[in-house]
Design a protein that fits this description.
The complex is a heterodimer of chains A (440) and B (384). With 440 residues, chain A is α+β, with helices and mostly antiparallel strands. Helices cover 52% and strands 15% of the residues of chain A. The chains are: A alpha+beta (440), B mainly alpha (384).
Chain lengths: 440, 384
């Protein structure tokens, strides 16, 4: 066995495959430590404005590495950090407040949205502000007067859009009047002039100019950072694939050993059950389980294992066990009076493990893709982010037709690399441990 | 999977040597094949019944089938009552009372108040005959809401896609494997072998990439669907459009399985072409074509077919999602729609039809197996 493994390292495919699996395992462990299970679920559910500062369906940042791409990133300016804020008390507890939020804009494209988030402290009467937009070429555009509470989504303000000549704020406020479809580069500023109506009232504002790129992996339609989904998808896929493979292979393996050892009707029954099981349509049954009982990934995993106990590999393993059963050392064991269970577990099974190993490794991607298939059909785990669920979301939002290829390609590539990694190791193991293949 | 076939190959190795010596009357071997087919048909039939029984159990665990029956009864009672002229005159409370009573009577008549196990045989028969009532919203292409019609009208579309795709896959892999076994060790051989791990991903997965490349970026081929809309009026135009729409899904199916099959079948051929009797044939001076046909292909076909059967079974499983990805109007996409619309009877029905399809595939493979495997024909001991 050890010799076999050493031999394995001589094949470049196996080295590459092992490297891929190693990297994936490291990423998986790192993810589970960095973002704990409950945190991942909370982030992916995305309630409570966790993602309010990230853009929707934004490409990953690496797209800007292309020499002809210079898409805007998200710019956040907060009056507590960068902006200037002056408060001048007037009479009777009323004070005048002025906030200026400057930022640099040096991109070739327009931002996606512009929103101001207000943080106002007051008892009864909320502050009131007048908003002015200052462009780099010195124009001052009056945006409007509003009550400074919650969020003001400038891009969704129909009045403002009309005043900007039918262009939403994120285009109208940035466009160069001379060259229509290009933004002006330079220093912009947002000026808020308003009044606080109470003694202890205070106002802070945060301007978010949503970009078209975000993070290492981009975002989805719910503004969630895909990095969370992609990195959590790896441990989930690995765990599902490996556990399902362990459950399915080991159970079939033991059953084959028992069936061959006892022979006669035991073997007959097992063979027959296997033939019945091959006919069971696994995916439709899993779909029904997902529809009627639970979509939890662990329930699905359990059903997958149950359905794979009598898998078609029973016949393969049976043929091998039959050969070994006749070998002299088994006869010797029987002669000195070894019991059935001793022979099965100590003499029959260990002999087959080298042959089982490549199969085990090769079957892992099958289960990984099975889980992804169910998720792509919309039967993914309701809470956990998985790679299949990201593909499902992307397809449901017609990502590839709307220029959001990153959304579908990234999870698909991770799945592909994972599948290839295991398959490469599996095929090489097969070549090393399978004597019939070795001689070729 | 490859070992399975190899061990099969091992069992078969003695095949042609023994078989050629024994001459048996044709009628006798036909009878053997017939008996074999019958036994297989029975086995597969029982397996299908068990499979469908399991499906029923799963579907009824949460009472979904019962609810379907109840809904159907309520619907029937309502329709029957509405047709009576006196129905409209009655006051509302009285109408409700009559309706409730009729529903209760009808439920008792159909035996819905008895325990589930007692009713199972009835369910089994209606499931086996796809008599699953009506879908809530879904209709078949011709406008029926009968689950049976929805399923049977969509079946041809699925077969049009998977039949040719699998035939193409089989012959491409077979000839590819033969071709490579002749050029063992060449650059092409090494390249194809290196591609074998790509079969770890299923067909729908390659479908995603194919659509992205050939439909979205290059715009050469349609995104999906079966024919263009509106369908071309002439038969030729229709066929052409169908072919055009077949290219991508068929390619996805072929890519997802062809390399691994070439790889493992090539290995069979290599193992078998180093057998003594092949050396002997070569020494006799037989042409290489004849050697391949009679001495290499003959004994390797049974394991190859066995392995292909497993590929096929795996492929059926992927049908649901492949059709969904390509918008192919077959059973798979209907299953997807049924999932999204919560159409339980359609889901149960399609699960059953998939069980039938799997069974039919296995049976056809078994018959082919009987035709190519001399052990079935001559009636030698099938297994050790």
């Amino acid at each position: 066995m050890r010799q076999g493994l050493r031999q394995l390292m001589r094949y470049p495919a196996a080295v590459v495959g092992l490297a891929i699996i190693g990297i994936l395992i490291v990423v998986a462990i790192w993810t589970v430590i960095a973002i704990p299970y409950s945190e991942a679920i909370r982030l992916w559910r995305g309630g409570g404005g966790i993602w309010e500062e990230s853009p929707r369906t934004a490409w990953p940042r690496w797209i800007n590495l292309l020499p002809w791409e210079n898409r805007p990133t998200t710019i956040i300016v907060c009056s507590t950090e960068v902006g200037e804020k002056t408060v001048r008390p007037l009479a009777e507890g009323i004070s005048e407040v002025e906030i200026v939020l400057p930022f640099d804009f040096t991109y070739d494209g327009f931002p996606q949205e512009v929103t101001i988030f207000f943080a106002a402290e007051y008892d009864e009467r909320p502050p009131h502000v007048e908003i002015t937009w200052v462009t780099p070429d010195g124009r001052e555009i009056r945006v409007g007067e509003i009550t400074a509470v919650g969020a003001y989504r400038m891009s969704q303000d129909a009045h403002l859009t009309r005043r900007l000549g039918g262009k939403p704020a994120h285009i109208g406020l940035f466009a160069d009047p001379a060259a229509e479809d290009l933004p002006i580069k330079g220093e912009y500023a947002l000026r808020l002039e308003g009044w606080l109506f109470e003694e202890d009232a205070d106002l802070d504002a945060r301007l978010v100019v949503y970009g078209q790129v975000h993070g290492l992996a981009g975002t989805d339609h719910l503004r969630r950072d895909l990095m969370v989904g992609l990195s959590w998808g790896i441990p989930v896929a690995l765990a599902f694939g490996v556990l399902a493979a362990v459950g399915a292979q080991i159970s079939t393996f033991l059953l084959a050993a028992i069936g061959v050892w006892y022979g006669k009707w035991v073997d007959g029954a097992f063979r027959w059950l296997t033939q019945v099981n091959i006919i069971l349509p696994m995916v439709p049954i899993l779909i029904m389980v997902g529809m009627f009982f639970s979509r939890s990934i662990w329930v699905i995993l359990g059903v997958v294992i149950l359905l794979s106990i009598f898998s078609s590999s029973y016949f393969v393993l049976r043929a091998m066990f039959l050969q070994i059963k006749e070998s002299p050392y088994i006869e010797a064991a029987r002669a000195y009076g070894a019991g059935s269970s001793r022979i099965i577990f100590r003499y029959l099974c260990p002999k087959i493990i080298p042959v089982l190993l490549p199969q085990f490794v090769m079957i892992i991607p099958t289960f990984v893709f099975l889980e992804a298939s169910l998720a792509v059909l919309g039967l993914g785990d309701p809470l956990l982010p998985t790679l299949g669920k990201i593909i499902y979301d992307a397809r449901a939002n017609a990502a590839i037709y709307r220029g959001w290829e990153y959304w579908i390609v990234q999870p698909a590539l991770i799945l592909l690399v994972m599948g290839l990694g295991f398959a490469m190791v599996g095929y090489t193991l097969d070549r090393v441990f399978n004597p019939r293949l070795r001689q070729i | 999977m490859s070992e399975m076939a190899i061990s099969e190959a091992q069992e078969t190795r003695a095949g042609p040597g023994q078989g050629s010596g024994i001459r048996i009357m044709l009628s006798r071997s036909l009878a053997r094949i017939g008996r074999y087919a019958l036994v297989r048909l029975l086995t597969i039939g029982i397996a299908v019944v068990i499979g469908i029984l399991l499906t029923i159990f799963i579907a009824n665990w949460g009472g979904h089938l019962d609810e379907l029956k109840k809904a159907e009864i309520s619907y029937g009672v309502m329709v029957a009552l509405r047709e009576r002229p006196e129905w409209r005159i009655l006051p509302r409370e009285e109408r409700d009372a009559i309706y409730q009573e009729m529903v209760a009577i009808e439920r008792a008549r159909r035996g819905l108040d008895r325990p589930f196990l007692v009713r199972t045989p009835g369910y089994l028969i209606s499931a086996l005959t796809l008599d699953l009532g009506r879908a809530a919203h879904m209709t078949s292409p011709s406008g029926s809401s009968q689950v049976r019609l929805i399923i049977l009208e969509l079946l041809p579309a699925t077969l049009v896609l998977f039949g040719p795709a699998n035939l193409l896959l089989f012959f491409l892999a077979l000839f590819g494997a033969l071709f490579l076994s002749r050029r063992y060790g060449s650059k092409l051989d090494k390249a194809i072998i290196a591609l074998a791990p790509t079969s770890a991903a299923p067909a729908w997965f390659y479908g995603l990439f194919l659509i992205l490349i050939f439909a979205v970026v290059l715009g050469w081929l349609p995104f999906g669907g079966m024919v263009e809309a509106p369908p071309p009026p002439t038969i030729w135009g229709y066929a052409l459009s169908l072919l055009e729409h077949l290219v991508l899904p068929v390619t996805a199916i072929v890519i997802s399985a062809v390399f691994v099959n070439i790889y493992s079948w090539r290995t069979f051929f290599l193992i078998h072409s180093s057998e003594d009797y092949v050396e002997m044939a070569r020494a006799k001076g037989l042409r290489s074509g004849a050697i391949e046909r009679k001495y290499v292909l003959r004994p390797t076909l049974p394991p190859i077919i066995m392995q292909f059967a497993l590929t096929l079974i795996f492929m059926w499983m992927g049908a649901i999602i492949l059709e969904t990805i390509f918008g192919w109007p077959g059973l798979g996409r209907q299953m997807y729609r049924a999932i999204r619309g919560g159409e339980t009877p359609v889901i149960v029905g399609i699960t059953i039809i998939f069980a039938y399809l799997l069974a039919a595939t296995l049976f056809i493979i078994d018959i082919i197996f009987a035709l190519v495997d001399p052990r079935v024909k001559v009636g030698a001991e099938r297994r050790v």
